[in-house]
Each structure stands twice: as structure tokens, then as C-alpha cells.
Design brief:
With 253 residues, this protein is mainly alpha-helical. The protein has helices spanning 2-12, 16-31, 37-57, 82-93, 100-103, 108-124, 131-138, 142-154, 180-189, 195-201, and strands at residues 158-163, 171-177, 218-220, 240-243, 248-250.
Amino acid sequence: MFHATMRSAIDDARTLAQLDSLSRTIWQAHAAETVTDAEAQGLAEALHTRRAAIREAVVPVGIPLGRVTLFPPKRLQRAPERSVAIERRRQLACSGPMPPALASRFTTGQLAVLRVVGDEMARHGACGLCIDAIAARAGVCRRLAQAAIRLAEGDGLLTIQERRHQGRKSDPNVLRIISREWLQWLRRGGRSAAPALLGSIGCKTMHPTDKGDPQRQVVDTEPKKGCRGAAVDFGRSDPVRILAGGRTGRAMR
């Protein structure tokens, strides 16, 4: 009677929790010698078969079969023409993205990636582009772009700030150049130097000279002399100066 009842309950179970409860009941009955060893073994095999069937029928909510993420798959990034990508990366690598002592550590594709990072650093003070955008501008694949950035980080040339978000898509990493030699190279290059970068290096701000009223400009009629001739000669009379506007007057000492 107990064996038939448990068999029917196993066939009607719809969740794994129900099967776990039936398993405990069966083995408790076996301990109380309500069922024989053969009957308990048969019920255990029925539980195993039913548990496998329920697990196969379970479909993850919101996640397609065969994938472990909710985000759409990444598209394979390829240049329309390989020759165009090769020419782009060579031009960027040969444009002098960093000092020769530092550039000798990287390949042509890696130098193209670091050129893109340096330009963004010069314009905005940091590089916030996603890795796909950096790779597309440099004419390389995203794997090579990641390797170049990690290599530069390992050499102490830049830092990587990760911006992860729990349960949603993370923001692109922020790259900042910390190498003083590289920053000075960008400042002197002039191709992509930005005020934000120039201000951080310590350049002085130049202001135009305030000449005042143009009608009061003084023009010296005496010819310019050398350093020795510029000494004050108290024995001579005061030089005559002509004011703008045709008036004359004595220069004050």
C-alpha cells in the first residue's frame, strides 16, 4: 500500500522540492521497516528518473538556451577592406605617438592603439572610449587593442579605471596616462595638445600687453644705443620726445 502510494506521488511530482520531500519520506519509512530494501531501491530509482525529467524541462527565464548572459552577442568587428585598416594603423604608428624610447617596446598595431589613447587624453584629459571604438580607430582587432592597453599598464605608462555595474551593462574603462615623459611628448607635439593637458603640465598663461591709449604713445627721437651707450649722461640736456599727435615736450627723468 505504501509502495503504491509513493509511486503515484513520484509520478505526479512537478518540482524538485516535492521529490526531495518524497525521498525523505521513503528513507524514513525504510528506517522504520515499513518498506523492504527492494521496494526502497525501486522508489529511489523512480525518484532519480523523475528528477532528471523535471530538470530537462526547466527553462531559464530571460536567458536563451545555450547562452549564459542576458546581453546580445558581440558582433565580429572587421574593417571593410583589410588594406585600409593596415594603412590606417601604419599612419598612426608612424605619426610619433610617444617618445622613441617608449615606442620601441610596442609593435605597429599597438602604437596605433596608443596613439588613439594619447589623442583622447590630450583632448579630454582621459580616454573614455570603449575598446571596440579604440580598435576601430586604430585599424586593429579588439584583442590586439586590449593587449596593447594591458601592456602599457604593465609598463606603468597608464592606469585603467574599471566602471562595473551590478546587474546591468558596465561603462567603458577610463584610461589615464601617468608617464611624465609621454605627457611631455604630447605637450610638445602640438598635434593634439589640449588646454586641459597643457594646464596640467604647468605652462604659463600669456596675456597680450596693454598698450593703453594709442594717442598717448611716446616715440623717442634719439637713435637706440648699445648697452654702454644707454647709461645716463647727466651733462647732456634732456632728449626731446615727440608725443603722438604732433606735440613736443621734455622727457622726465
